[in-house]
Design brief:
Shape: extended
Structural class: little secondary structure
Strand order of the largest sheet: 1-2
Number of helices: 2
Mean pLDDT: 76
Order of helices and strands: EEHEEH
Number of strands: 4
Helix content: 10-25%
Largest sheet: 2 strands, antiparallel
Distance between the termini: 32 Å
Length: 131
Amino acid sequence: MLICCFYSGGRKLFTQAQIDNYLHETKSKLTIELFVLDNRVNLKQHYSPDGKLLDSDISKGQENVPISIVNEVDKEPGKIEEPSAFTYRVERTPVAGVNMVINEPTMTCCTCTDGCRNRAKCACMFFFFVE
């Protein structure tokens, strides 16, 4: 039997509830959805692209983590097309010809002030996770 465990501040956290409580107590900006509690997941495995690296960071440093472009489809030398020039934007920006939904009910979520700890009362959790 494998056990998933997270270490933080000298504490061992074994369950989703323990992690959720710790995040709430420390007023962390992290959310419980960022933690993997499935012991079958190989946390040490890294993505190794099998293709040509076209750009090591399309955000040009605008994001905390580089966003690379890899072409794994066109593998023949000379047939790999470079991406067209574009402007990377961190935030959604309306531009001509793009239908951007900005006032839909799905864009508004809950009014929780406790980090959505009460899943039964959180409108977001109900809307996105209850069928």
